[in-house]
Each structure stands twice: as structure tokens, then as C-alpha cells.
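A student in our group prepared the protein record below, which I am reviewing. This is what I was given:
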Amino acid sequence: MPPALPDGETPPDDGALPLSSARGAVDRDLGVYLHVPFCRVRCGYCDFNTYTNAELGGGASASSYASTALREIELAGRVLADPALTDAGLPSRPVSTVFVGGGTPTMLPVADLATMLGTVRDTWGLAPGAEVTTEANPDSVDAAALDALAAAGFTRVSFGMQSAVPSVLRTLDRTHDPERLPDVVRWAREAGLEVSVDLIYGTPGESLDDWRTSLDAAVALEADHVSAYALVVEPGTKMGAQVRRGELPLPDDDDAANKYELADEVLSRAGFRWYEVSNFARRDPSDEPGRPPRHASRHNLSYWRDQDWWGIGPGAHSHVGDTRWWNVKHPRTYAFRLEQGLSPAAGREILDGPTRELERVMLGVRLADGLELEPGTGRVPERLRGAVADLLREGLVEFGPARQGRVQLTLRGRLLADAVVRALTD
């Protein structure tokens, strides 16, 4: 069962944003997230807002979903073009990144994905060199589909690999054949798409050798980008129930730390560079020191760097300036509200200065280029000098950057990133 939506104030039915959301927008990029909430089967560990098509019908079905999502894109276009907002400083901006996630977006026909992307392009335009990504399961695409995605304007595909070990995939309820990965990656490259693969470590029963096998397989694919996430067993999931009943062991923190260190070792040796705690990009000759690597996910960087994005789809979250909101979760309710000409937003919050600063620290600490403690000054604020000294003494942050007022995590610091955040915010 997907997690409950957060509490918040009731948003207006027309989706209008407060004028304060326009403040500083000239310095922020605009991204679009398109949520496709359909999967062929639900994985046992997943708590995302996803559904099998058999659970749905009417305007919420996969066959009608694209036309429903178009209504929200059109609503978003009207909201962001509101003259009151533009007078308050919200510029007309082309979209810098588009990310189609889920669920399994490629359960929809490529023509539907192309239509949604085309409507984003018609509504805002795409910035030169815009990054356009779709997630895909290895068994949900073939060479023709990948060619069609590239022809529609997609530039990148992110494959849900998770593991190369069949027993681990079975525990995760993943249905794809790991031997298919080299084929789909090759087809994607032949189509001209950049390739990312997602891995999960810490699955109950996964040995360190199993994890090494998955890492070696990911490296052999010669992908541009690898994400490596520790498994989190969420309440309300099938796996959560299995752990609660004692059928599966709870993932172990020490085991997860060992596997993260192995990921860093294997991927670094293979020419990847970490740019966010869980994300590694293949090094490129064009990479600039102090800048994210060329093959980094620019859409995900926009989240970590407090840019603006509009999330389309049931349960999707959006963020413009100081305003965050989230849509109703169920596809039927989502479709019904849009059919009635209403915003699908279920709640929103206006973030105050201290909350935005807390989030800047929480997200910025995770990036390889680090967090400026007092932006633009090159100093460590007086109130944080003791905390930074403690972090240096514990080997969690790099010494040189800290002298310039910037926190950059060591490998040990990446394993204890939450502790670093607490030290800087308590």
C-alpha cells in the first residue's frame, strides 16, 4: 500500500499559486515529472503510488491515461502563465528536464508517451539540450520501441535492473530475465539514447558475492549512469509483511554499509564518479572540476538543488519557489477531478525560510560538490564551527573544502550522511 499523503492546507480548485512562489524564479530552472502509475505486477518491496491495470478502469485505465494527463499539463500551463504571477516575477521558461517515471511508463504505447512529451513541448517549449528521460523495465521495451522513443525526443532511458542474480530478483518479485539487459542496453545505445541502470542492495538473502556479481554486470553494460540504492523495507508492502512474520530477515545496516563501500570501489575503478550519495556517472573528458559530470541525471539534480518542477499524475508532487503541493493519489479520483475542470491537487504547504534552509542542508550535503554553509561568503558560520570541527575529527567531511566554508562528505561521511545533517541542523 502506497504511503499516505502528507497533511497540508487545501489548495484552490483552479490550481492557482501564491504570488510568493514567483520570488527568485528567474534563477531557477523548470522541470516536469510525468507519473505513469501502472505496473504489470507490483514488486513486493515497492510502496510507490502504482497499480496494476486490472485494478482500474474508465478514465483511470492505461488506455485512457495519456488524455487524462494532458489535461493537467494544460492546467499547469495556464497556472504558470497567470498574469499575476508573471507580474510578480515568474518568467516564461522552457523546460530543462522531463522525467517520465512510475510505475512502468513503457507499459503505455510509445505514441502515448510521445503525445505527453509533445504537449509539454507545446506548452512551455524545451530548452536547448533538454534532458528527457523515461524509466523502463528490461522486459517492457524492444529495439523498435527504443527507436520510437528517441524519435519522439527522448534522450535518456533508465532501466530497472535491480540485480543480476535470479534468486535476488525473485525475492524482490522482479519478473525480467537479467540476461536481457545487455540486449536492451545495446538497443538503447543504437537508438542514440543515454543509459542509466538502477540497482538495489541489501535484499534479504543477498550475499556480498551476489552484490559484486550485480555490480560487475552493471559495469559490463557500459552504461552512462548507475544508481545504487539501499533496500528500505516499508510498512504496508508485501515484503514488510514477510519481514514482520519472520519469513524474511530485516536488512542489516552493517551489511548495507559493506555493500555501499563495495559499490564505490567497483564503480570508481570502472571509471564512474559519485556525484550524489546513491548516484554514479561515467567520467567523460568534458567533465569540469567542481561541476557535476556530464552523464549525471540533471532532472534529479534539480530536486537536490531546489529548482522548480511540476509533477503530473496521481500522487505526484510539485514544487515552485516556496510552494509545494501534491495530487490526489488514486487514478480514478485524479481523472474525475480533471474531467470536472478542477486541479487534482490534494494539499499544499508554503515553506518558510527556516524550512527551506533545512531542506537546502539536507539535500545539498548529499552532493559531491558539497554544501556551502553560508552561500557566497566562503566562511563557516560561527554557530556551526563546533559542529564542523567535530565532523572533521570524526572523518565525515573533507578538510580542504571545510576551510572554505563548504561541507563535502568523505566515503565514511556518505555512509553517515544523516548524522552529518543532524550535526549541521540541531
